[in-house]
Design goal:
Number of strands: 13
Mean pLDDT: 83
Distance between the termini: 24 Å
CATH class of the largest domain: Alpha Beta
Helix content: 25-40%
Oligomer: single chain
CATH topology of the largest domain: Rossmann fold
CATH architecture of the largest domain: 3-Layer(aba) Sandwich
Length: about 325
């Protein structure tokens, strides 16, 4: 038998160059000093910072606007993930909000509307495309901002990393996102798999309810009432048994997973995610560290995905 090799489906091959560029740009939105001075190398040397909002507030994530030096008709917008207390409050707004024919995590949807409006301010007559990039909370905002802009007639596409499971799919919205948003999930990253169903499967409802009730004296009655009204969270902790529907990360999801050639040598497989891949939390030591932006950078940039061969092993 021949030696096994890492490979990727052809459906991802067309996006490799952009995924590598997007991963490189992610580090800038987390590093103001580097971004302001554009002290980059390799891919980063091809971009120029046009605008930067470093302070986030509730429903208003930090973001950067950059242009490609050689192709100034293409605007890149990079949205930061959770990095402040206000970002945490945005994450806590978990109620499903109506979006097209589906529903979206309310905090992320409001953030995406904010990003879409900011992007429009940087679109000029000669802008031929907007590429939105984001990680974690920023990935969700970038994904739905892409859909909003596409729906309004703008040429937009999204590349997101570690995007939360924040989308309650429906036909039109799902098809739009699948066509125009590439979502990269690193191996066991828990955030894209963290939703009502997967948490509910891990924590027995009665056990969590008893835990909350036994500590009720430590909680304000209003807080417990708020938890009950927050249907997704309430169901996850066993306060509400009513199903809220399937949840997934938005876009066409691809899983990037290590492929060990030896004890010291690692390559990376890329495969298109199935629903079964995302409806169960992978319990392992890397489930949290895989979500770090640095982990995505290492996996995408250092693995040099462009040199990974195409194959049909992971084709649908």
């Amino acid at each position: 038998m021949g030696k096994k090799q890492a490979c990727m489906p052809s459906s991802f091959r067309a996006h490799v160059n952009r995924v590598e560029a997007a991963a490189s740009l992610l580090q800038l939105v987390y590093d103001p000093n580097k971004a302001r001075g554009m002290q980059g190398f390799g891919i980063l040397q091809a971009f120029q910072l046009e605008h930067g909002e470093w302070e986030s507030s509730m429903y208003k994530p930090a973001y950067l606007v950059l242009r490609n030096v050689e192709d100034r008709k293409r605007v890149w917008v990079v949205v930061r993930g959770t990095n402040s207390v206000d970002d945490l409050f945005t994450n806590m707004e978990t109620e499903p909000a109506k979006f097209m024919d589906g529903h979206v995590h309310k905090g992320i949807l409001l953030s995406s509307k904010f990003i879409a409006e900011q992007v429009k301010q940087h679109i000029t007559r000669d802008t031929k495309e907007v590429v939105l990039v984001g990680h974690s909370l920023g990935g969700g905002a970038a994904a739905f901002a892409t859909a909003i802009l596409r729906n309004e007639g703008y040429e937009a596409s999204g590349i997101v990393f570690g995007c939360p499971s924040c989308f309650y799919p429906a036909t039109f919205a799902e098809e739009l996102l699948n066509r125009h948003v590439v979502s990269v999930i690193l191996d066991a990253d828990v955030i894209p798999r963290l939703n009502n169903n997967t948490v509910f499967a891990l924590i027995p409802a009665e056990g969590m309810e008893n835990l909350l009730l036994s500590t009720k004296d430590l909680l304000l009655d209003g807080l417990l009432g708020s938890l009950r009204k927050n249907k997704p969270f309430a169901r996850a902790v066993g306060l509400d048994k009513v199903a809220t529907g399937e949840q997934l990360p938005p876009g066409r999801n691809f899983i990037l997973e290590p492929f060990k050639l030896s004890s010291t040598e690692v390559e990376w497989n890329v495969r298109e995610a199935q629903y079964e891949d995302l409806n169960k939390i992978v319990l392992c030591s890397s489930m949290l560290s895989d979500h770090n932006v640095a982990s995505y950078l290492d996996a995408v940039i250092k693995s040099q995905l462009r040199h990974t061969r195409s194959c049909r092993r992971f084709e649908l």
